[in-house]
Amino acid sequence: MKDLKIAVLIFFMLTLVTGVVYPYAIDRTTRALFPDQASGSLVRIGDRIVGSSLIGQDFKRRDYFWGRPSAIANQPLPSGGSNYSGTSEALRKQIEERRKEGRTGDLLFASASGVDPDISPASAFVQVDRVASERKLPKEALDRLVESGIEERTWGFLGERRVNVLRLNLALDEQALALRKDSR
To answer: What pLDDT, on the 0 to 100 scale, is given for residue 183?
Structure first.
């Protein structure tokens, strides 16, 4: 009976430490050291949340820059890819449909996570003509916008150069609004 009491006491103590104290301490520490990341890297316009810089959004309109396709509709909870093999007929059909839309490069293939918010600079620049034409904006202005949105490799060596599609489209909306005000 004594051994059972000790086992139950250890069970409850470990449950308290690993299930309450440790998670609380980690949460408080990350919120203090990395408040933006711990809160989901939310992107706001004023008081309104418009998305997260870590989760891709599905921009379908031709007057916006498109992100990578998602096999899971950019939903973060069932994160994952399509798991189609390179010889899959379904994958080949998806790629052909994307080509017909005018997609190239990394815009043809869904990311492994299904929620990739970034595209390569080359994929952003390829879309400039379409977006400029749809919005009736100067191509050079959009080239500069894409250039200013390029994020370098993390710490200079991790990952690739990239452009966050949500931030790029928000900057696009701001620029279009500013150009409309200037033309009045």
So the answer is: 63
Q: What is the pLDDT of residues 29-60, one digit of tens each?
A: 999 999 988 888 999 888 999 999 999 888 98
**Which amino acid, residue 97?**
E
Q: What secondary structure does DSSP assign to 76-141, as a single string?
A: STT-------TT-HHHHHHHHHHHHTT--GGGSS--SSS---EE-HHHHHHTHHHHHHHHT--HHH
Q: Convert 36-55 to b/e letters by CB count within 10 Å (16 or more is b).
A: eeeeeeebeeeeeeebbbbb
The candidate with the shortest Cα–Cα distance to 61, out of 123, 130, 163, 116, is 130
- DSSP H or E run through 65: none
pLDDT at 126: 94
Quote the CA–CA distance of 121 and 165 in Å, as a whole number.
10
